[in-house]
Q: What sequence folds into this?
């Protein structure tokens, strides 16, 4: 039934139902996490900035299921790109690791070059190894020149940071152009994979 409620929400968005945000607000409070996730996605797909306050509120009050908050972050970055960057980045310092990771992944998946400084600063400040790895993956997900240069520089430094950066960069193995660039940079510095 939760999946049906979620699909119905997307349908309402698609047909431009006039009171769609009222329906989506109610769905954000659904007892089933899948319905709340669908509500956040539907708000993002709507393209309506009237959904921004709903998403911010839900992110601020949190949810027992971190994926709900992650979807709120992603929808915010889609609807309210630049202003949402600092808001979502604020959650990189959250007390709960799952929320930190959700914010990092949402920032990375936004592909916004302006997200890089937030992710870089959080990575430099992170003391938890798992968060650091997640932040490196988020930096890779940006798919920006600046983020690629940063990760390559970490590989060239050597040590544990090098291994973590190389692990994150492995996502590019299927992209011949980028993988060749990574290999070329390493060869220029006397290193190989």
A:
């Amino acid at each position: 039934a939760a999946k049906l409620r979620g699909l119905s929400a997307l349908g309402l968005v698609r047909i431009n139902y006039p009171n769609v945000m009222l329906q989506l607000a109610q769905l954000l409070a659904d007892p089933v996490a899948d319905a709340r996730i669908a509500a956040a996605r539907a708000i993002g797909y709507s393209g309506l900035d009237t959904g921004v306050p709903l998403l911010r509120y839900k992110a601020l009050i949190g949810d027992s299921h971190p994926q709900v908050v992650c979807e709120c972050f992603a929808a915010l970055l889609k609807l309210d790109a630049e202003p949402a960057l600092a808001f979502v980045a604020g959650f990189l310092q959250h007390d709960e690791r799952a929320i930190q990771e959700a914010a990092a992944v949402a920032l990375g998946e936004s592909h916004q070059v302006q997200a890089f400084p937030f992710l870089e600063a959080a990575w430099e400040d992170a003391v938890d190894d798992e968060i650091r790895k997640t932040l490196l993956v988020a930096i890779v997900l940006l798919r920006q020149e600046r983020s690629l240069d940063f990760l390559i520089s970490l590989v060239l430094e050597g040590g544990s940071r090098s291994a973590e950066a190389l692990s994150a960069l492995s996502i590019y193995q299927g992209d011949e152009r980028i993988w060749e660039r990574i290999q070329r940079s390493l060869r220029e510095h006397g290193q190989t994979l």
Q: What stands out?
A: The two ends are 49 Å apart (CA to CA). The mean pLDDT is 88. The CA atoms of residues 140 and 169 lie 6 Å apart. Residues 33-46 form the longest helix (14 residues).
